Amino acid sequence: MYKKIVIPLDNSATDETILIYIRKFARLTNAELILVHVADGFAARLQDQLNLADSEEIKNDQAYLDQVTSSLQKDGFNAHAVLVHGKEPVDGILSVAQEEGCDLIAMATHGHKFIKDMILGSVADTLRHRTDIPILMIRSSVK
Predict the structure, then answer these.
(1) DSSP 133
(2) What is the pTM of this model?
């Protein structure tokens, strides 16, 4: 079944939704979990081009990923994290999924409505149109 699952996290309360579900699912499949966060603030997007030191955003995002990874590992999961910067969120998620050889993408969705999606865009919607990797989407009740 699924051996490597990439889990996009956005460092918000929504993440807990997918983490609850994926713990149950990964126990059944014994899958490796790859957490990914794409830092997309101004400094993160230009860090490599401008040879910038890590911004507070990147430091906070890395600390968050380390905390979630540690929690999963303490519970017996084979998990590691990748922090991506300098890319659009969908590009970053897909590059990690491909580089890691993932066979499932599991993510929480915010459940925006039509107008908000038009204004903000939807990572989940764009992602599903740009990959052949199966995607498990769990709608978060967090608003």
Answers:
(1) S
(2) 0.84
